[in-house]
User: Fold this.
Amino acid sequence: MMFLVKAEVGLKRGHFDPEGDVVAKSLRDLGFSVGSVRVSKAYTIEVDARDAAEAKALAEEMCRKLLANPTKDDFMVEVLLIEGRTD
Assistant:
């Protein structure tokens, strides 16, 4: 069964995020009242798995093995769709 999963990878707290700092400054320059901004990458992946739990586990393994650097990155995984369904 095909599942659509989202894996979001971003810097752990305490790591310098220069891109986030630039975005925060630019938003302030545009008149928005914002605190800090953190930038992350989002991957949308089609996964062939038996069920949603296995799809999530596979995506987490992908993050640990390739998509995230465990020294500096955290990640979150979410199952978005099951074979085109949104519920």
Notes: Residues 2-82 form a domain with the Mth169; Chain: A , fold (CATH 3.30.1280.10). Strands lie at 2-11, 40-48, 73-82. Helices lie at 18-29, 52-67. Residues 52-67 form the longest helix (16 residues).
